[in-house]
Amino acid sequence: MTTASGIPKAKERKRRIRTKKTSSLPAVLLSSLPAIHVNLLAGEESLICPSCETWCPITGPTSTAPKLVPHHRGRAGTSEPHRCVGSLRRVEIDVDVADWGREVAAAEATATGRRSSRVNRKPLASVPTPVHRMASVPGPSARLLAEQARARAGVDRHRSDCSTCRTGQARCPVGRQLEIRLLHTDASVRLAHEQHESALRAAAAPAIPRAQQWRQVKDHVSRANQQRRKMPAGQAPLGSPPVPLTTLRPQRPTR
Predict the structure, then answer these.
(1) Do residues 145 and 68 both lie within one domain?
(2) Is residue 38 part of a domain?
(3) In a domain, 161, yes or no
(4) Is 160 in the same domain as 96?
(5) Which residues pair with 39 in a beta bridge?
């Protein structure tokens, strides 16, 4: 009988150990770490290991030689575990618990203040104008017409002052930009006029009454009914029930 060899995995980090071994690395000073990287709550003493940057419990925090428990670099349960070089590293608790609590509270308040409470909602998609309201589509606005007038006046003024554009055979760079601006403005005014006229035509078109719609399709419906009443050519299949030729009209039973 053969058994599959188990794949080694990272173990959970214990809070208390009994070994007297210590790491040869220098001790970790809590005062050199950010307050949010340390947890000095009673029964939860831990810090972020400087070597693997993961939370690691501190064993013996009230003893004379607190140190980090042996741990792997990965999370518990991950495959291919590797022992962290920061295991059994001594820890010097050179900060006061009350001062540490105040620093953590200040850091959390600062982080909360950096988070914006404003909700940025996505803009809603523009809804097209319904057909029954297309007549209310306005024509070119007064601002657009004024912009067109200014663009045309600018082109005329430049042509009277510029010797190159006055001849009409060539254009200077400034005259070309002014003419392009005038063309764009004219196109916007023309488009607004076309949309307004199209809306007026759609609103003026009479709606087709229901009776007129039925008159248009009456011949097609009658032809379909006649074809439906025709008996199919050939004999009926043997053993099949007869095809009803009369319209069944259910009646209320007499009492």
Answers:
(1) no
(2) yes
(3) yes
(4) no
(5) 46
How many other CB atoms sit within 10 Å of the CB of residue 212?
9
Could you give the C-alpha distances from 66 to 12, 34, 41, 125, in angstroms and in order?
19, 19, 15, 62
**Using CA of residue 65, residue 70, residue 73, residue 77, what is the dihedral sign?**
negative
Average pLDDT over residues 128-137: 60
Tell me the three state secondary structure of residue 177: helix
Distance between CA atoms of 158 and 165, rounded to whole angstroms? 8
* pLDDT top residue among 183 and 209: 183
| Cα(135)–Cα(129) distance, integer angstroms | 10
Parent domain of 51? 28-113
* Residue 21, C-beta contacts closer than 8 angstroms, at least 6 positions apart: 88
- Residue 3 in this model has a pLDDT that exceeds 70: no
3-state secondary structure 114-166: HCCCCCCCCCCCCCCCCHHHHHHCCCCCHHHHHHHHHHHHHHHHHHHHCHHHH
Domain count, the chain: 2
Q: What is the pLDDT of residues 143-158, one digit of tens each?
A: 888 888 998 898 888 8
Whether residue 205 is predicted with pLDDT greater than 50 in this model: the reply is yes
Flag whether the pTM goes above 0.85. no
Does residue 155 fall inside a structural domain? yes
Report d(CA 160, CA 167) in Å as an integer.
10
pLDDT digits (tens, 9 = 90+) for 239-248: 777 767 777 7
Last residue of some domain: 180, 203, 226? 203
Helical spans, DSSP H, in the chain:
97-114, 142-161, 163-166, 173-204, 210-229
Q: Rounded mean pLDDT of 206-220?
A: 79
- Structure tokens, 191: 């488009």
**CA pair distance 65, 89, nearest whole angstrom:** 10
Judge whether 131 lies within some domain.
no
